[in-house]
């Protein structure tokens, strides 16, 4: 699973304005010919990304090339069940990536369009965001 090797701060604040803004970075296809683009915003966990990646890889029978354009670097903490209030912030449980609408999540190349669409659709079912499949515009 994806997680940072080393972090500057072990625990982060939640942040504000969740799912309100649209993405300004990673909005275009940079590497492949086909991509999966988020239409809604959510926190996507490293487990969900790995499940989507596995579904794509198995669908194309390890053919072509897949790029993951997002990385889960935000730590999410959890306290134990039945813990009383107080006693500080919990331990880091898992990592997420903040996905905004318009973010390109995965890219593919090296296979025909029908197989790529099928693989990206399988990956989209594993993610908590609504997504669409986009293709590179040839100029």
UniProtKB/TrEMBL annotation:
Protein name, entry field: Large ribosomal subunit protein uL16
Keywords on record: Ribonucleoprotein, Ribosomal protein, RNA-binding, rRNA-binding, tRNA-binding
Keyword set includes Electron transport: no
Xref: Pfam families: Ribosomal_L16
Molecular function as annotated in GO: rRNA binding; structural constituent of ribosome; tRNA binding
GO CC aspect terms: ribonucleoprotein complex; ribosome
Main function: Binds 23S rRNA and is also seen to make contacts with the A and possibly P site tRNAs.
InterPro entries, A to Z: Ribosomal_uL16 (IPR047873), Ribosomal_uL16_bact-type (IPR000114), Ribosomal_uL16_CS (IPR020798), Ribosomal_uL16_dom (IPR016180), Ribosomal_uL16_sf (IPR036920)
SUBUNIT field: Part of the 50S ribosomal subunit.
GO process terms (BP): translation
């Amino acid at each position: 699973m994806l997680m940072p090797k080393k972090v500057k701060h072990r625990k982060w604040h939640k942040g504000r304005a969740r799912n309100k803004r649209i993405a300004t970075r990673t909005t275009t296809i940079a590497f492949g010919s086909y991509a999966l683009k988020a239409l809604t915003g959510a926190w996507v966990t490293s487990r969900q990304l790995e499940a989507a990646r596995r579904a794509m890889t198995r669908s194309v029978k390890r053919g072509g090339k897949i790029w993951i354009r997002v990385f889960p670097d935000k730590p999410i903490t959890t306290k134990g069940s039945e813990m009383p209030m107080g006693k500080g912030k919990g331990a880091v449980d898992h990592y997420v990536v903040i996905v905004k609408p318009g973010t390109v999540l995965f890219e593919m190349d090296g296979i025909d369009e029908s197989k790529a669409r099928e693989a990206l659709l399988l990956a989209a079912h594993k993610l908590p965001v609504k997504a669409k499949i986009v293709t590179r515009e040839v100029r």
